[in-house]
Design a protein that fits this description.
With 350 residues, this protein is an alpha/beta fold. The protein is built from eleven helices and twelve strands. The protein binds nicotinamide-adenine-dinucleotide. Nicotinamide-adenine-dinucleotide binds next to helix 4 and helix 5.
């Protein structure tokens, strides 16, 4: 499996493979860039079809973190970790402790936190072995803890900006939103959308999560295979990436795609496809930066919860500018966001 010639390699600074026979841990940590600071990005624990898929995922996710942290104005580079889940390597305190030792061995080049398949509790075990972890339980008014409510808040405000721009409405009252995945972020987002008066359509492949969401917010349940194509105003992807493709985009009926999932576009050409169809796309790593803003504040210990709230609030204006520039230049929103991210990183390198 070639790494240097991999389609997603994109000049990664380093790539680290870890194995532990006792816990069964198999993990890859990718450090895309440390130009702006230590590479930061969560740990995803997922069942991958094979190692090649895990490598592709971690490379794409870590580059996305470089872009996300740059556009959010954080003193952090981009990195990500994946743990290859399997029956031989079930979740266990020892697995996360060993992973903590792996992260520690990188000496602070990489800071981890929770992502899909990991929880605050898992990060507590990681923290027993390393200081280079965030997203831990906090007390009082300190910033930090589970980042997903902050991600959801940024997404809600991003959806408001998109609805303003695309539908000319300054409220979410009666706006129909389809939420794909009601896990950590998706469920919080549903609560916020419901409170704002939106009408919800939800899908999840995990029935327990679906039931939990249904018990809390009124929502129409949609089959996971149909959710992307539901007749709604806004599609909010909050599950996994690679969902906006040449196959799915022609069938999307929403006028806006704005949600938390990382790497929603399968390829850059899919961003152009959305624009050609007149669908306004909120670049994923711009709208979903709320969580890393909280993680950064916790890690550096230099901000209160109010500071985090104010910083997350800036996501809306960032998106408004991207939407406006896209309209004026006729260029797709993802291209403008990528350009901005790359210019911030290039300036830091100089
Ligand atoms: P999660 O694991 O808690 O939730 C994901 C949910 O999506 C689960 O309930 C899962 O069953 C469901 N799902 C998976 N495939 C699905 C499908 N095909 N159709 C419908 N549902 C499906 O993860 P999360 O922390 O809520 O993160 C969700 C997404 O947001 C991920 O892409 C993650 O990388 C991204 N993200 C999360 C954060 C954060 O703060 N947690 C921050 C930025 C980005």
């Amino acid at each position: 499996m070639s790494v240097f010639d991999h389609a997603e390699f994109d000049n990664h600074e380093s790539l680290h493979y870890f194995f532990d026979e006792k816990s069964g841990l198999r993990a890859i940590v990718a450090v895309h860039s440390t130009a702006l600071g230590p590479a930061a990005g969560g740990t995803r624990r997922w069942v991958y079809l094979n190692e090649a898929d895990a490598l592709t995922d971690v490379l794409r996710l870590s580059r996305g973190m470089t872009y996300k942290n740059a556009v959010a104005g954080l003193k952090l580079g981009g990195g990500k970790a994946v743990i290859l889940a399997s029956h031989e390597a079930p979740k266990s305190p020892e697995l996360f402790r060993h992973f903590g030792r792996c992260v520690d061995s990188l000496g602070g080049r990489y800071i981890t936190a929770e992502d899909v398949g990991c929880s605050v509790d898992d990060m507590r075990y990681v923290h027993e072995e390393t200081e280079f972890v965030s997203g831990l339980p906090q007390s009082g008014n300190d910033a930090g803890g589970d980042p997903s409510p902050w991600t959801a808040l940024g997404c809600l405000q991003g959806i408001e900006a998109a609805v303003e721009e695309q539908l000319g409405k300054d409220s979410l009252q009666g706006i129909r939103v389809a939420v794909q995945g009601v896990g950590h972020v998706g469920l919080h987002l549903c609560r916020l959308l419901h409170a704002a008066g939106a009408e919800l359509y939800i899908a999840d492949v995990n029935n327990d999560n679906l039931k939990m969401a249904q018990a809390e917010v009124p929502a129409t349940i949609v089959a996971p295979s149909e959710l992307l194509f539901t007749d709604v105003d806004v599609l909010a992807p909050c599950a996994l990436g690679n969902i906006l493709t040449s196959m799915t985009i022609p069938k999307i009926r929403a006028k806006i795609v704005a949600g938390a999932a990382n790497n929603q576009l399968s390829t850059p050409a899919d961003g152009a496809r959305l624009a050609e169809r007149g669908i306004l796309y909120a670049p994923d790593y711009v709208i979903n930066a709320g969580g890393i803003i909280s993680v950064a504040a916790e890690y550096y210990g230099d901000a209160s919860e109010d500071d985090v709230r104010a910083d997350v609030g800036r996501i809306k204006d960032r998106l408004r500018k991207i939407f406006r520039d896209a309209k004026e230049t006729g260029r797709p929103t993802h291209e403008l966001a990528d350009e901005l991210a790359r210019s911030v990183v290039a300036a830091a390198r100089q």
